[in-house]
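Milestone 3.1: sequence recovery, worked example.
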């Protein structure tokens, strides 16, 4: 099974940093890396769609960290929530490696295992809060 771009981005956002760093070390090795935009924080506007009227509005700003690298002429980028410079750099390197043919093949099993761990953690957190869930009924006029 090949790791999809969506799965890679899910892993970058939620994976354990130590696992991401280990994957980067194996996938990148001694390849030539140019950091085009060092990991830096920024504010970005968060937009959401109103569920009743369907209109889009700005709910506020969120702190993100972004980074862009070039790995042997292949561009990779990452934007993660919060001030997480190491995660953003790892994400950019993994993104660039993923865009190269078979660059992640050696670490794909490791990454898929980490992705399964992330999903299990999410299921456990979701299950833990289900008792506090409130269902609201929409009243007809």
């Amino acid at each position: 099974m090949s790791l999809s771009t969506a799965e890679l981005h899910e892993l970058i956002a939620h994976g354990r940093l130590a696992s991401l760093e280990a994957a980067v070390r194996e996938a990148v090795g001694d390849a030539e890396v140019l950091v085009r935009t060092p990991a830096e924080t920024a504010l970005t506007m968060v937009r959401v769609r109103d569920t009743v009227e369907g209109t889009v509005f700005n709910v506020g700003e969120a702190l993100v960290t972004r980074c862009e690298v070039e790995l042997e002429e292949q561009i990779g980028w990452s934007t993660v929530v919060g001030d997480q410079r190491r995660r953003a750099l790892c994400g950019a390197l993994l993104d660039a490696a993923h865009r190269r043919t078979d660059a992640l093949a050696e670490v794909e099993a490791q990454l898929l295992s980490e992705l399964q761990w992330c999903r299990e953690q999410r299921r456990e957190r979701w299950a833990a809060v289900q008792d506090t869930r409130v269902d609201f009924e929409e009243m007809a006029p």
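The chain has one domain: 5-125. The mean pLDDT is 91.
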